[in-house]
Structures are given as structure tokens and as C-alpha cells.
């Protein structure tokens, strides 16, 4: 099964498909500017996944700022990205002892070569390993059937549309209770739960958590709304460095109103720690 | 009681203490730049309340952008603000049909007159009255005793520290079940619930909701942590124009870890609509 296979061919953090596809290259002579190539491997139909884009921007900030790890990242999505050349312009806003603050924008080029802004981000970075160890929590991990009882790509009618490149790169196993939409029987509840890993077995790190928070099918699918729900704003808090092993992710929508819906994600690691929380405001699919 | 008094002396939206104290003045010859005076009336000890500051920045963006109402506002708090002169620099990032996107920074002046950045914001603005009317929600309003059974300033031992100017400007009535901290008996739960209004009876509007999401005593108090919990990041989604009348607000902390805690706020109006959702990441009080 998936887990056993993964154990025989684990990609390492820093040497994996995800790392190569989110790599950024400092532009000579322009401090804080990074060139990048948006991979076609992380697309849904033709749209590049918003979590993948956030991880790439997060990697640029990780290089530009004095601290290595994202702690809180607020992203506004302006225009849809496509596979191909891109650049990230970063700015150090403030450098502190515990946290540094930066801004970054992802751009692509229009037909005339002019830069078009895709996403703008303000972020706080820190060193997750240096934070105090105290935890007080009432949060509980999502209730999810065992990995082998959840639905992956190979389980009959694809729970994720087959034309999406990103599904090849994720080891996503949906809770059958939240996968009804895939067989035309959505639960009507704004909930989705899944086991999450990268297909090549690379473990999670703070940068890949920025992908994880936006990598499940939209909750709108389980609400019976099968259109595209483009992200308007996405804020992610990284609460802890994730332990090795598969993640559990729940996403929840409680309120669709005025043509928008919120989607709250929680990401839990194998050590039962809440490693990331995010909320996005998305445009509701047109019905 | 408070409600009856308020009915006899209601301040109007646009002509109230809150409106005057969040006013911004366009600086002649510098488009997008607004001068302001941070009022001493919205302080906790000497710190200016983060929600008040956000409302003032939100008002500047409301003037600078083509759309009037905040829809989603992401704010990073960089340095503490003090009462006195300030300015807001705004930038129109992108103008769209339904939403426009802007950035704003609040600055104050150091001893040499140099600008010091206090808060940086990226925001989407729209026209809340033009949005589709459809609502699908599973969210429920906070369970709260009637207004007259909740605790205000006049109810014996002040549930809010008496040295705080802001308490004079709010009509805040805490659920007794979440006010134990005020008598040295915190519940231990990261929850706070209250009725919320402005003391002069001014009704809520989208700009004052930016105050409301950060106006309750911190959840950390009920967790037995009585120090200051400075906001690092605060994102607010305004989901609906609020109906007249008092608001109900709940704030919840589920996870304190690594020296940070999240605080989720929900604001409900008198028509039982979820009008605002916010989450902030704050530094946990040092213990």
C-alpha cells in the first residue's frame, strides 16, 4: 500500500520534487529579487495551486529575511498564475530579535514583458526551533479513519479530477465521509478531511505546510458547489515544526454569504501537534 | 439601564466620538497620504488599542480605494502606537469590478521627526450592499445571557482595568461565565463573550467592526495569564453590513504554543447575522 511504498523511496527535505519546483534563484545585482519557474506540475486544470505559490514565495522570504521559518503569512491573491517564468520581489520591513517582518510579491510577465503582480504577502519569520516549548491546548486532531481506509487516487472513480497535475504530486487520502461529492453525493456539510503527504515521501517542513493548507479539494465541493472557488486572502500561522510522517488536515466552511466563504484549515502532525492553522476567504462558486 | 439610556442619546454613524477619533485628513499635494491624530481615548494603560488603529487605517483605505467597505483586511503590527500625531500612507494595488485591493501603513514620528512604521495592512474593499444576498451557514451566534445579566463597568469590581481610557468609550457587557479573571478566578478556558456597543450609542458599521474584533479583554486573562498579549497579525473578514443594535462577540483561543496564541473572534449583529470573523496571532503573556 501507499505507506509501505513510500518507505522504500523517500525523498529528502531539500532534495525532492517539491523543493526543486519551489526553488528561487537570487537575481545578480538586485538584492531581494528572485527568479523562479512556476512548474506545470502543481496545477488544477490550468490554474497553479495557491498553496504551491505560497510555498515558493515563502522560500524566497526564507532566503531574504534574517529568520528562516514562516510564523505568520498573510497573502492576497490578485490575478491567476500560470506555469512559466516568474519573479519574487522581497522587502525586509523590520528585523527583530524573535521575529523579522517582510513583504513579498510574486509577479509574472504579460505579452509585452511587463510585470503583472499575482500575489502580495506580508509575513513574520522566526526560528521555530528556538521558541519556548510550553503548550496549552484544547484543540483536538481531526477524527479521521486510518490511512488505509481513506480514498486515494487509485480507489476507483477519482475523488480528485484526473486532469489535475497536482494530484500526481500529492499523497492525499480523503475521509470517505467527506468525499461524497466525487460520486455526485455531497454531504452538504462544508467539511473535508484527509491524510496528506507528498507523493515522493518527502516529509513536511514549515515551507511545505504553506502548500498543505491549500491542497485539499475545496469544501465547496461537499456543499454541492462544484465550480472554482478562487482564493481572495489566505493567512497561515505555522505553530510548530512538523514531525516526520503523514499529516492530517481538516478544512471547514461555516459561513457562505455575499458570494464569499471562509475556509479554515488545521494541520496536525504524526506527533499529534497542531502544526498549522489557516483561514482563507474565497469567492463562492457561481451557481 | 444601559440600553434605555442609550436610546435617549444615540450618536449617529458619521457624527460620533468614534468617527471623530478615527478621522483622517488628506494631505494636500500628496495623494493617498492622510494625517491623523491618535486619540488618548482608546488606550489600555498607555498602549493604543489595536482595533481602534485598524479602524483608523480602514477609514483611510475607504477614502483611498474605489470601493467603500472593508471585506478582508490583513494587518501586521510592527511597533506599539502612542497617542499623538500619525499618518497613513496608502497605495492602490489593483482596482477590480467587485473588489479593489490596497495597502496602507500607519506611521508615527520619532524624536527626530523621522517616520516609524507601526502597522502594515493589505486589504480588499468592496461594496457590501451590492453583494448577492444568498446565505448558507452552519455558524450559530454565541450563547450569551441577556444584556442586563452581563457585567458592565458599573457592576462592582471593574471587570476591565479602570486605568484604561477605552473602557469609557465602549458599552461592553461581559458574560459572567467568562469574567472570572476579574475577581481572580479565571475559568482556565480560552473564551470570552460579551455584548458590545459604543458608549455613545453609535451603531456599528463596517469600519467600527474593525475595532470590535479587537476590543474585548484578551482570552489569555481567562487562561490565567494576566500580562499583555501584543498582536502580531490580525486578519478580519467583514461578511455583512451590521444591522443597528448591540453586537455579540465571542473570542476563543484553542492553542497556546511556542510563546504564541491565536485568538478567533466572531461578531454577530442584532439580526442574527455573522457580520465579522477575525483571527489574530498574539504573543502569549510572559509567565
Key terms:
6 helices; homodimer; mainly beta
Polypeptide structure, described:
The structure is a homodimer of 287-residue chains. In chain A, 54% of the residues are buried. Helix content of chain A is 15%, strand content 37%. The model of chain A has no long low-confidence stretch (mean pLDDT 93). The longest helix of chain A is centred in the first third of the chain and has 15 residues, at 50-64. In chain A, the strands form two sheets. In chain A, strands 1, 2, 5, 6, 7, 8, 10, 11, 12, 13, 14, 15 and 16 form a 13-stranded antiparallel β-sheet that branches. With 287 residues, the first copy, chain A, is mostly beta strands. In chain A, helix 3 runs antiparallel to helix 5. Chain A has helices spanning 2-8, 17-21, 50-64, 166-169, 206-212, 219-222; strands at residues 25-26, 33-38, 43-44, 47-48, 69-77, 84-95, 100-109, 115-126, 135-137, 170-174, 191-198, 231-238, 247-252, 255-257, 260-268, 274-283. Chains A and B meet through strand 5, strand 8, strand 9, strand 12 and strand 14 of A and strand 5, strand 8, strand 9, strand 12 and strand 14 of B.
